[in-house]
Design brief:
It is built from 19 helices and 14 strands. It has helices at residues 10-21, 33-40, 51-60, 70-74, 97-106, 126-136, 158-164, 175-185, 197-228, 232-240, 261-274, 280-293, 295-304, 331-340, 353-357, 370-374, 387-390, 394-400, 415-418, and strands at residues 2-6, 25-29, 64-67, 79-82, 115-118, 145-148, 168-172, 192-195, 311-315, 344-348, 365-366, 379-382, 405-408, 424-426. Strands 3-2-1-4-5-6-7-8 form an eight-stranded mixed β-sheet, with helices on both faces. Strands 11-10-9-12-13-14 form a six-stranded parallel β-sheet. Helix 1 (10-21) packs across helix 7 (158-164), helix 9 (197-228) crosses helix 11 and helix 11 runs antiparallel to helix 12. The radius of gyration is 23 Å and the shape is globular. It binds nicotinamide-adenine-dinucleotide.
Length: 437
């Protein structure tokens, strides 16, 4: 099929590249000229495993191209996928300005058979609004075909997830349009669920809300474990073996972040309020997460008193391993708080350093290696569980730190490993390990 993808971020670029890989002819359109220039030269502006190689292969095969020119990009397209950002507006709702600006740009280039597929996460009723908007803004002679196909890929394994996702959701009211989108996705061989537009929109929000709830649930249990003298890792294993509960998303830690959970939770909560049905479970999920993201700072204060004059090595900045994305990363409030308290900060992240420099306050040091970040620091604070950090030898922590103390916000090491390591160890929901003598 001839496809256009609007927006070349984590979702749009990965989707465009993967759809070209399975034989479609794909044009990706973005208003960010720098991004387009990089992409035209085979360089991925984002970090995702395997993405850049696949991008180059398909550029070379001429299955894929990039432009910022809507007219050129939309010529002869059967399907247009919308994958622009829908960030959080200050009132909590999703900010749909980029989405409607893309719709305005698309409208003049639509023909009777074009199908618009919304991959962006949008509030319930938005797909109907898009159709109405197009029909009021230039498309008068035919009925606009719109399909909702929300995206479920995970940053950090986005290419893998596109080929091996759990399900594809296709919502729409026009059977022929739904069938075309089904055919587009069939080669991935992933189970497809067909539904109406509103249910498709709802599935996306309900999925993220449930996953966020699972995280806040286990974090709440972790905090209780600390009071009870229990070990949350064993508790997670013990409850996760019950198939009705499931073992995934039960790792206690320093809270969730990222470009999706915080804003999607906020959007569905705002929607609930708007329709006069407050979502009290989700409001508490949010509150528990906010508390969780400052927990490491509390643990540091408990150990050191006021952190002024101390230096901490923050290991991991990205909101999760495998990505360079810093949006709503739990490292941000932690570092802000430590810097405001007068602490010195060294950081290490294998992918997110450049993005972090635009977000973190002045005075933060960026190290190229873990050794360098730890050198002369009073303690290490693990915020993102990159494999490289999990594999880092405990002896090297001891060698480089002034005080052998680790605050582990991702429970990277087992208590067995830490016992007798000569390192004071504070993790989440598990007993602290103090040094003897
Ligand atoms: P992103 O911010 O990484 O990328 C959005 C891109 O859209 C940017 O490159 C931006 O320049 C471009 N853009 C903005 N306005 C445009 C316009 N008018 N025309 C063309 N391009 C325009 O966003 P993302 O993380 O890829 O998320 C996109 C959507 O997918 C969001 O709704 C998000 O909630 C949803 N989603 C994201 C993920 C994820 O893991 N990131 C997963 C599932 C769903």
């Amino acid at each position: 099929m001839n496809i256009a993808v609007i927006g070349t971020g984590y979702v749009g670029l990965v989707t465009g590249v993967c759809l070209s890989h399975i034989g479609n002819s794909v044009t990706c359109i973005d208003i960010d000229l720098d991004k387009i220039a990089k992409l035209q030269n085979g360089l991925s502006p984002i970090y995702e495993e395997g993405l850049e190689e696949m991008l180059r292969t398909n550029l070379h095969r001429k299955q894929l191209n990039f432009t910022s020119d809507y007219k050129k990009g939309l010529t002869d397209k059967d399907v247009i996928l919308l994958a622009v950002g829908t960030p959080q507006h200050e009132d909590g709702f999703a900010d749909l300005s980029a989405l409607f600006s893309a719709c305005r740009a698309i409208a003049p280039h639509l023909h009777e058979h074009t199908i618009i597929v919304t991959k962006s996460t949008v509030p319930i009723g938005t797909n109907e609004r898009i159709k109405q908007y197009m029909e009021q803004n230039g498309v008068q002679h035919f009925s606009v075909k719109i399909v909702s196909a929300p995206e479920f890929l995970r940053q950090g394994s986005a290419v893998h997830d596109t080929f091996h996702g759990d399900r594809i959701v296709i919502g729409g009211e026009d059977p022929a349009a739904v069938q075309t989108v089904e055919e587009l996705y069939r080669p991935f061989n992933i189970p497809i669920i067909k539904t109406d537009l509103r249910s498709a929109e709802m599935i996306k929000y309900a999925s993220n809300a449930f996953l966020a709830a699972k995280i806040s649930f286990i974090n709440e249990m972790a905090n209780l474990c600390e009071h009870a003298g229990a070990n949350v890792a064993d508790v997670s294993q013990g409850i996760g073996m019950d198939r009705r509960i499931g073992k995934h998303f039960l790792s206690a830690g320093a809270g969730y972040g990222g470009s999706c959970f915080p804003k999607d939770l906020s959007a569905i909560i705002a929607y609930g309020r708007d329709v006069d049905y407050p979502l009290s479970i989700l409001e508490n999920v949010q509150a528990v997460n906010e508390r969780q993201t400052v927990l490491l700072a509390e643990k540091i204060r408990k150990k050191f008193g006021h952190p002024e004059g101390k230096t901490f090595a923050i290991l991991g900045l990205a909101f999760k391993p495998g990505t360079d994305d810093m949006r709503n990363a739990p490292s941000i409030p932690l570092i802000n708080e430590l810097i405001e308290s007068g602490a010195g900060i060294n950081t290490f992240d294998p992918a997110a350093t450049e993005n972090a420099k635009n977000i973190l306050p002045k005075g933060v040091n960026y190290a190229g290696t873990i050794d360098e970040a730890l050198a002369g620091a009073d303690g290490a604070v693990i915020v993102t569980d990159w494999q490289q950090i999990k594999d880092y030898p405990l002896n090297s922590f001891k060698k480089h730190l002034v005080n052998p103390v680790i605050f582990d916000g991702r429970n990277c090491f087992s208590l067995e490993q830490m016992n007798g390591s000569g390192i004071e160890y504070y993790s989440i929901g598990r007993p602290a390990i103090h040094l003897k003598g």
